[in-house]
Amino acid sequence: MDGNPFNSCTSLKNVYYSGSENDYKNYVTIDLDGDYNKEYKNATLTYNYTAYDTWAVPKEPDKSLNGLAQDENGVWKNYKDGKVDTEYTGLVDYNGTWIYVEAGEVNWGYTGLVDYNGMWFYVSGGVIDWNYEGIADYAGNWFYVTGGMINWDYTGLTCYSGAWFYVSGGVLDWSYTGLAYYNGIWFYVSGGMIDWNYAGLVYYNDVWFYVSGGMIGWDYTGLAYFADTWFYISNGMLDWNYLGLTYYNDMWFVISGGTINWSYMGLVYYNDIWFYVSGGTINWDYEGLIYYRDTWFYVSGGCVDWTTAVIEYNGNKFYIQDGMVDWNFSGTIDYKGYTYHIVGGMVV
Question: Who's near 2: CB < 8 A, 6+ residues apart?
Answer without folding.
Answer: 53
